[in-house]
Design brief:
Blueprint: E1 5-9, H1 13-24, E2 28-32, H2 36-55, H3 61-65, E3 71-73, E4 84-87, H4 93-106, E5 112-115, H5 122-126, E6 135-140, E7 149-154, H6 160-172, E8 176-181, H7 188-204, H8 210-220, H9 227-234, H10 236-249, H11 259-266
Parallel strand pairs: 1-2, 1-4, 2-3, 4-5, 5-6, 7-8
Antiparallel strand pairs: 6-7
Helix pairs in contact: 1-2, 7-9, 7-10
Length: 281
């Protein structure tokens, strides 16, 4: 099946980034959210990002102009026109399962349903549909227009043709698709989030300041961003959600979230999106 039209469900940082990259890569794109405010912010974010990429000559003027054709909607009505739907809402299992039930009803049977989940089981998500062979994970990295990786997650029921189609789409998007099997946290967050959690423990135990901990990892390990600054970029609520899934599904003690992380989330200090996390923005 050739993918010509992509429907993105969710207009937050990830959804808007996916819609932007899909549009500049030549796909017809619809971006849906239940909030007009979210759609307005997505339009602004996409416009600003596109201008920067154009100025840096990462995009041509022809590619940049394509984002103006993104169709922003509040309902699922036009999802039926798409060959690929990518869900990119918050990391909430119940929410995602409800969305996939709706997508199963509002799309054609041959349409591929993909989730941008960073930790939730693709097998579980697929169980909410009548087409588990057409359900797959497409875990993009933030910020989507700049990061090359897409972690392509297949469940035991995902069809080979579904995987091939999604890999081809990723390549058209200019990404590097890496196939992994369905497991808690997949590869990326099973490795990344425990590292971030250990950095938070080090801060909590006064091993070093936040700046010192991040500097050791950027200067000594050549990481482009320290783990605490990275947590702020991801969102501390998202990091906590992933750790709780790893804790529940893999090991109660090994993946126990640091108390300081829980405290910050409870206080609404979620990182860049709230203006304060381990740093102030």
């Amino acid at each position: 099946m050739e993918v010509k039209q992509i429907f993105v469900h969710g207009a937050g940082a990830m959804g808007s980034g996916i819609a932007q990259v899909a549009a500049t890569s030549g796909y017809r794109v619809t971006c849906m959210d239940i909030s007009n405010k979210a759609l307005d912010l997505a339009r602004q974010s996409i416009a600003g990002s596109t201008v920067k990429l154009l100025e840096k000559e990462i995009l041509t003027s022809e590619q940049a102009a394509r984002v103006e054709k993104i169709n922003f909607v509040l309902t699922l009505e036009t999802a039926r026109e798409a060959q690929l739907v990518i869900e990119a809402v918050s990391e909430n299992p119940d929410l995602k399962l409800n969305i996939f039930r709706e997508l199963d009803l509002h799309t054609r049977p041959e349409t591929i349903l993909a989730s941008n989940t960073s930790s939730i089981s693709i097998t579980q998500i697929a169980s909410a549909t009548g087409r588990p062979e057409k359900v797959i994970g497409m875990h993009f990295m933030n910020p989507v227009p700049l990061m090359r990786l897409v972690e392509v997650i297949r469940s035991p029921q995902t069809a080979d043709q579904t995987t091939r189609t999604v890999v081809e789409v990723c390549q058209v998007l200019g990404k590097e698709p890496i196939e992994v099997n369905d497991a808690p946290g997949f590869v990326s967050n099973r490795i990344l989030c425990p590292m971030i959690n250990e950095a938070i423990y080090a801060l909590q135990e006064n091993v070093g300041t936040d700046e010192a901990i991040d500097a050791v990892m950027t200067l000594g390990m050549n990481h482009p961003l320290g783990p605490l600054a990275l947590a702020d970029l991801i969102g501390l609520d998202v990091v906590l959600s992933i750790l709780r899934i790893l804790q529940r599904d893999l090991d109660e003690h090994k993946y126990r979230p640091a108390d300081l992380l829980v405290e910050k989330v409870n206080a609404g200090q979620l990182g860049r999106k709230t203006g304060r996390g381990f740093y102030e923005y």
